[in-house]
Amino acid sequence: MANRSQPRPGARSRSRSASRSPDTGASASGPSASNDTSSPIFELLTIFGLVFFIQAITDLVGLMTGLFVLTLPLVENPWTIVTSVYAHGGLWHLLSNSLALIVFGWPVARATSRARFHTFVLVTGSIAGISQVLLSGFAAAAPFISGEPVGVLGASGAIFALLGYLITGNRLSAGFASIIDVPQWVTIVVFVGLAIVVTLTTAAPGVALIAHFTGFLLGLLAGRARVLQVRGNSSTRRSVG
């Protein structure tokens, strides 16, 4: 499920919805929910496969890096801010991210619209990738830290964001948060600590840990803010879990 770091190259019933808690909302149900929730996962998996095929073709002519690997400076190949989210560093990287997408993304997709789901994946994945190259580039430029700037590709930042959203955007978390009132700074500290712990469990050579941390933290905050929650014409809200 890890992003790959590479050395830098040169409404159901109205009455039912009204009886649900306004903080957590009703879960999506019925045919319309099914049609709107199962397809985003399939669409993303299809995009992953198509991009992986294109990567293989462009790699033969030496264009893959410039098209799909996010590197510094960002203005040099700005499209990679988007394309790197859907690209992968190998077959195992593709398969592991696809499996993680199904496991963590499916419950989130069921609770939101197709457009919001795709936007969430793209935005969190892009921010995670940018944070990885910027911070690793800064570290490489520091005189007291050895290393070199890296390029990054992969959907892991977005998938960690989905996992984070799944943790804080579900009914249980919402109910717990409504009962126990803590200062906002405590919540942030807990989220950062949790993100650090989860990120360190994925530590391995070539893994973009900064992207994982950033994505997971973004997901935790987004889940707490219910940014993917949808209000339909019947005032029905969907929530994770």
From TrEMBL:
Residues 77-224 form the Peptidase S54 rhomboid domain. GO terms for cellular component: membrane. One of its GO terms (molecular function) is serine-type endopeptidase activity. Signal peptide: none annotated. The keyword Transmembrane applies. Its main location: membrane. InterPro entries: Peptidase_S54_rhomboid_dom, Rhomboid-like_sf. It is found in: Membrane. The chain crosses the membrane at residues 44-70, 90-108, 120-144, 150-167, 174-197, 203-222. Residues 1-37 are annotated as: Disordered. The keyword Transmembrane helix applies. It comes from the Archaea. It is a multi-pass membrane protein. Residues 1-10 have a biased composition (Low complexity). Residues 24-37 have a biased composition (Polar residues). Keywords: Membrane, Transmembrane, Transmembrane helix. This is Rhomboid family protein. It comes from Natrialba chahannaoensis JCM 10990.
